[in-house]
Design brief:
The structure is a homotrimer of 682-residue chains.
Chain A (H helix, E strand, L loop, with lengths): L14 E6 L6 H13 L4 E4 L4 H4 L9 H12 L4 E4 L7 H6 L26 H18 L5 E5 L11 H14 L3 H8 L26 H29 L5 E2 L1 E2 L8 H5 L6 E3 L8 H14 L5 E5 L18 H11 L2 E6 L26 H16 L12 E4 L2 H9 L9 H14 L4 E4 L10 E4 L9 H10 L3 E5 L21 H4 L1 E8 L6 E5 L5 E13 L3 E6 L8 E8 L2 E6 L1 E3 L1 H14 L12 E8 L2 E8 L5 E4 L5 E4 L4 E4 L1 E4 L4 E6 H10 L2
Parallel strand pairs in A: 1-2, 1-9, 2-3, 3-4, 4-5, 6-7, 7-8, 8-9, 10-11, 10-12, 12-13, 13-19
Antiparallel strand pairs in A: 14-16, 15-16, 15-17, 16-20, 17-18, 18-19, 21-22, 22-27, 23-26, 24-25, 24-27
Chain lengths: 682, 682, 682
């Protein structure tokens, strides 16, 4: 894995900027904005998001002049532009004249105009107009000196159930299945007498229609993800014609359930995403999301396209980011692969439903605010870092498998419990590794897993073709593979495996999963380690498994399956495959992973206290070490003896130990590395 | 009450079988199925449920060949067939070509095709096609040697609000009411100015329409129940033409709120029902449901048509049935009148929304599972029982009144509390009797109550014509009648009684109910027994009643009605009528019923420990005694001295005491009886 | 402020009566009703509510004869009539023939006929028919000797989203905004690209349409309130033509969110309202609502048009009013300005969804009920009071500002927390004053505030034009002004103030509100008084404010804003402006207001124990003093020394002290005053 070049070679530094909507403001504010941007090192405004009606107020009339003006003003003041196509909200005139651009709800009832993301992704009219505006913008601004990157549309998502979509869905299915018989078989339609006798009978999974065929529901999710992806591709290709050298992205949303971002990732030049953790999320939850985005394009650095500088507005409770958290979480992103630190939004709009969302410039317009100060200080610091982290890659020896189809299939499953907790389970395993200061790559069903030592695949309910084979190969060559309850139930059509569970993974795991018990929230069982090392609470689901080759490592403490295995290990080739048959408390996972990591000699570079996060990126100039203190107390961190480090954030030399106060961050390079880097970074 | 003959004289034993959907599976599985059925004593597969599209893939094309084949295979292997008409889910081609077959939701918006039970019960198209397929099947299979019973459609239920239903509803009303004036008067339509001036103005009680006239809501429930019943009748009559000698049933759903099963019961040859208790239900809750089904046709034995062999899938938490519970609950059914023990389902489908529902054969297809073993052992045991329980009836001296119209009226009532808890109240009273090991018959407003000693009618809010008179006669002849709060408020049109509450029961109860107070969940009052025997918590609703002839047995402890009566007894003729004016804690009911039972010399045959259930069925050969240990500890049960019993389950002779381990069951006959039975049972 | 004349000079006493629906009952009941009314001093029946179909059973046929009869019967027995137009529920024939009279839901889907308040307020058909029936009734009954007041329609409310409303909304907007550009600017439509380019593009804020423009949502609420108000005005004007001398009202619903009653108040002759507190509401919550209604027409006495004599039916739990509470709460109304004490309803209907709602005559029809007795005793007592409280006004020196637009804007705001608790906050501040026995006037953004000493404006998020200026004038002249968090954020278009918060109030408050933190329900901070007088819990929202002229009175105890001001005082001219930046526990407010009141020498006439309410009304004859014991214990209240009082309720003379038992009431006048009053009151 080699370091990557900067996303745009013209800007080989961490981009600092964010959403800017000058069209909402009178022109006298524009100059204030530019002056405040300069003051806060806000270098990369994102312009154009939602500007469609401002650029095309009538079907035949375009008004680019204001955009010309502000882009020039921004350019003249030293800004670089992230230029968005405005297609996330069509103008009212379009919905009015061409109602087919509007989405329909899950009963097939057409929406009224309004909100955003309210366009039908299969609508030929929407697609035609979206391509047209993208093309016009590309033609006009491709050569703009400040243009840094194209940002297509905004936060693609949602789903439509209109008759156009129904028609296109049938076309999509006819390409996917060799015949209607093939579809009937793979969808298991004889169940409840749902066999289709003509393609025209297939409809979307309406809320007041067909929700009993899970393969239909699943395929409809895939179809909608594909249709929106086509919208992106059409705009991208229109831009590319005029602007072949500028990278093109669209902003994603982490573990957003609606889109298979792994498939999307292949179509963008660089991943960008909007990071809005709940105020109470643990740092490891956020780290997981960054790693997911880094994984989408196989370790390529990504852009943190949006985060709030202070508070969100759409959560039930929108706490402020505490002082220092914006900086800490920004470096958390950089540590995990971000080459940009950007915000939603530059200035709070005075009206509309986001006027209470945090912004760099609040309604007061004042620069003497805590938030403006924190943004400015961070901006200065990032500027000071220059290119010294840019393109740096992460070398992980542990991988965790995530898969959107798997998630969709899990969510659709009726029984054994309603709340399946797939994402929570991923976060729980991730947290165990995070607490041991071990770097994790997020991988997918189609990823190359052969380079890792440890592969964790929580709740891999759906096994796609070839995955089991690749896992077998991985283990046989010495890898450690960890699976959990709810693994290997179905194939990619959501059809249960004919030989039961864990299906194609039975061989490598050496177990047979006979039954799955569901526990009420107030119930629990215990995991009793066979080596006497401990007992741990488990709950939610308890599978009753049998070792067919595997060795039990722990057994259930109570209930009629007391004494039967709950944790197993199967030696397979040169490696081991583990199975955890129930949902354990966190402390089990912490204890469970330690010996596995030790066996593979996986350890962090430094021994750091709890609450401190450590991460490394390998740049062209050498290793950059990130130390992030998530704790509210100051900590002392011992460094590798006899080595001197430069803290890139303040240019101080550190040796032996470094002290980090609450929420403080250090970015270190060994002195020799730093010399080179300092030279090149100019 | 004489014992009944077997449902079908060709099969004078407990039917063991369940839902089987060969059309979902390739033919190589069919032979495995038959072999596994043989192994598990799975004797009566239910075939045809939801097979419509497989039997009629096009309007003019029928494909019975596969069904011919599998029926013959099953017959050849010794199976007997429960043959279902497939009309619970119409084929997609039908919904597509004749959209009037689809249901409309409670706003009158037509559903899309999909799910099941999604047909309009008044649709002439649906009815025509349903009759046609039933007729074709009857014609073809009436003489099939393995045919045991007809199973029409599946779990009738739900409601439609389409314009066809609106029209039919008006027709139905015109038969029910002598004139529009009559309807206006009985529906109390001048309230809120809702008087109809033309029949055509009457609409279903749309969620976005008329929900203020409760008599309309009530009549619409009756109407929908009747329309679905007509669907059943049409299919039944079509079958009868060709198959006059085979019994016809449809599977019911216990206290399902949508249908008046008492009315339906008159139309079937035998009651069959699907028993899906929540995993946490108490055995007495299940016993109550079986008794309800036994009562539907006045003590005729019924078929347990469906139960899960392991877990359900549609509850929030679907715990496994613990080892032994399947057997215990199966005999619970038999003890209360079941002549069949059947499952949903034989083999788990690989796809669709029920693929996580328990089955005899799991996805693994293996026979070495706990569930398969338990099913097989139970099957063998049932086979061993032969006809020795078949047709046996239950002689109860206590009856409890349940009424669907009453339930519907209670649920519609706005005030004094939202959550009325009718079913819970029935369960609570039933549990008090169950704990005293006393058998209860569930009766209805039109039942003959004269044969009982004790009649309990919890929350009999609606009194239909003649009910009060029959209760008066019952009490005057020496019966004990127990009523509770929320009794005698309205007539069968949901019109409040003109002289207040308990209306026509005022005389027999000797009370006047002046006011009803509603308590918040955290509030309570106390029932203070006038004889000093105890104090009990009461809550939910507290009626302020006056004795007008009755004697107070207990008074309220607190609040402004402290000291006023809460429990009363009225001597009436040779009997007594009791009134309980608030919702008591369970221990009150336990204490309350003991002396009433004692007075009538109602006592169980044996004295058994708590947690053990005792039940008797009188067969042609004599008394069969069921002992079921619901406890997790072993118990010793003393038998009648000097009498020897045969345990029909293992042919062992027992005397003096019998020991039952956790969840164990014994079915005893006195030795003399047994001799006869053993002879005839061959 | 002078006393007011009686609402109708023919009835200078407290009206006692309520809703009466003779059309629901056979005529033999009518005579029973009149006899029972006489017995219970039920003097003013409200007739006609919902009688439309009974008066106009066909489009061209009117049937007033029954109404003639009953009105004459009532008049002959000494009743006076509150005569309602029946337009709250159109006849079924109208909905059937003219479907445009039906409302559409918030997705634009037309309702079916039924319920009430189900008419479109912009429908020309509805308006034409409503005017017609009002006119016919006015023409026929204007000269009826018993006619006391007109009651137009019933509980106006709800909203419609049909295409007629959409068209009228555009017309309404075109009058409100000078141009589409003006609207776009004030609605901040460039946000999310929502700029309208033609008036025809504007639609109601459909649930499945435009909900992102808060100014649209706000204007639509204003529009719907105006449209219903037009319905009222049209009926009122039709009546006025024939009945120019009889007062006209419509019954309001307290803090009903749907209508801007302050605007409506200008159009009625007298305020009337329906008082349905939750059973658990505190007396101060009810007092607040009465004061609100008294404030709607600037201290004019109002009519308590509806209250339940016993229980409601639509709450989750409908507890009975305890004995004495009906009397206590009735005098609570009178003490706060009511000149009528009326009920819903006279007699419980036998059917329909309100049959479990309390009534003077229950289903039993008996007069020997607790409720009938309490009503009768109260009726006699009220009769005894004659005119001695009528028209009396309240002189308050404390005012609290309430504003519907402000409420609407607060509710629409997305962030910083979902549950904004505007009404609860008003209640909390009101309760602090109530506990100090201090009278409060509720005022509005357009009220004259210059006459008060203390003005409290909780959560005045929206500042309408001129409000800040009037508050500045108020303070500068010596007033004390109290504001809280969430004040001064937006202007009347819901546009955030350009200089931040508290916007135009920054000057008078002397603070700048930099940030607002949101706390999870389990979190809290503390208010630490700078003078060491105490610490109080605060939660929900914590604003981080800066004194820009103000003096901090208290600081936050914890979190990163520990030590920053949470309560401030700004001396401004001769007065002070206070700011409370977080939600405090109640005890803070109790302590906070005491010195402010002391400073203004605001104190109750008498020193009374906790739980006793004191109120005064100034009549033409002098001061009437109300003492209400809300406690369950008897209390002794010391009176002003050396003065003798007459208790108007029992004509007893009291001196030195008066004892009130549980829930008891006294209405006192000083003896000299009383002499006059006794003379004139005859």
């Amino acid at each position: 894995m080699h370091p990557f070049p900067a996303v745009n070679s013209r800007a080989p530094f961490i981009w600092h900027g964010g959403d800017y909507n000058p069209e909402q403001w009178p022109r006298d504010i524009w100059d204030q904005d530019i002056s405040l941007m300069q003051e806060s090192h806000f270098r990369v405004p994102t312009v154009g998001v939602f500007s469609w009606v401002s650029l095309q107020p009538e079907e035949e009339r375009f008004t680019f002049e204001w955009l010309d003006t502000i882009l020039d003003k921004l350019a003249n003041s030293g800004r670089l532009i992230c230029l968005a196509t405005p297609t996330a909200a069509q103008p009212a005139w379009m919905s009015q004249r061409y109602p087919d651009v509007l989405r329909s709800d899950d009963k097939g009832i057409r929406n009224h105009h309004g909100r955003r993301g309210n366009y039908c992704p299969t609508s030929p009219t929407y697609r035609r107009f979206a391509v047209q505006i993208a093309e016009r913008m590309a033609e006009r601004y491709a050569k703009h000196p400040a243009l840094l990157i194209w940002h297509v549309c905004n936060e693609y998502g949602g789903a439509c159930y209109c008759s156009q979509c129904a028609t296109e869905f049938r076309n999509w299915l006819q390409k996917r299945y060799s015949s209607l018989d093939d579809l009937n078989q793979k969808w298991w339609t004889p169940f409840w007498g749902h066999t289709y006798t003509d393609w025209s009978q297939i409809e979307p999974p309406y809320a007041n229609g067909e929700r009993a065929i899970h393969a239909l529901t699943l395929d409809y999710k895939r179809f909608q993800s594909d249709m929106l992806l086509q919208c992106f591709q059409l705009e991208r290709d229109a831009i590319r014609k005029f602007s072949p050298d500028i990278p093109i992205t669209t902003n994603m949303m982490g573990t957003y359930p609606g889109l298979d971002y792994r498939k999307w990732a292949k179509e963008v030049d660089v991943i960008s995403w909007d990071c809005y953790p709940a105020p109470k999320d643990h740092p490891s939850d956020i780290a997981f999301l960054h790693d997911l985005n880094r994984g989408l394009r196989d370790n390529q650095p990504f852009l943190l396209m949006e985060q709030t500088p202070s508070s969100q507005n759409w959560q039930a409770v929108n706490a402020l980011k505490r002082p220092g958290i914006l900086r800490l979480w920004s470096y958390l992103a950089v540590a995990h692969g971000a080459d940009a630190v950007m915000y939603f939004q530059w200035r709070r709009g005075r009206g509309g439903c986001e006027k209470m969302h945090g912004a760099v410039v609040e309604h007061s317009g004042r620069a003497d605010t805590r938030v403006f100060r924190e943004v400015s200080q961070l901006g200065a610091e990032l500027e000071h870092l220059k290119d010294r982290t840019i393109g740096g890659v992460t070398h992980s020896r542990v991988a965790m498998l995530f898969d959107w189809d798997n998630w969709w299939a899990i969510e659709d499953t009726v029984g054994p419990v309603r709340d399946k907790q797939y994402i929570q389970t991923l976060r729980q395993h991730y947290a165990a590794l995070w607490k041991q200061h071990v770097s994790v790559d997020i991988v997918f069903s189609d990823s190359d897993i052969s380079t890792y030592d440890v592969l964790i695949a929580p709740m891999l309910y759906m096994l796609k073709p070839g995955v089991a084979e690749r896992i077998e190969a991985f283990v046989s060559k010495g890898g450690s593979f960890i699976a959990t309850y709810f693994t290997g139930y179905v194939n990619e059509y959501d059809l249960a495996n004919e030989n039961g569970y864990p299906g194609p993974l039975s061989h490598v795991l050496g177990i047979w999963n006979e039954e799955i018990d569901a526990l009420y929230p107030e119930q629990s069982n215990k995991i009793v380690m066979n080596d006497g090392s401990g007992k741990y609470v488990c709950n939610h689901l308890c599978e009753i498994i049998h070792c067919e080759g595997a060795t039990p490592l722990a057994t259930y403490a109570t209930d009629f399956y007391a004494g039967s295995p709950v944790v197993t290990r199967n030696s397979f080739g040169r490696g081991n495959a583990y199975y955890i048959a129930s949902r354990p408390e966190q402390s089990f996972l912490d204890a469970f992973y330690a010996p596995i990591l030790a066996e593979h000699h996986i350890a962090p570079t430094l021994t750091v206290p709890a609450g401190v996060e450590i991460a490394q990126r390998e740049t062209a100039q050498g290793t950059v070490l990130f130390l992030l203190n998530h704790a509210t107390d100051a900590v002392q961190i011992p460094l590798q003896s006899k080595k001197r480090f430069l803290n890139l954030l303040n240019d101080q030399t550190v040796q032996d130990t470094i002290t980090l106060t609450q929420y403080d961050v250090a970015i270190l390079t060994a002195i020799d590395d730093e010399k080179n880097q300092g030279a090149k970074g100019q």
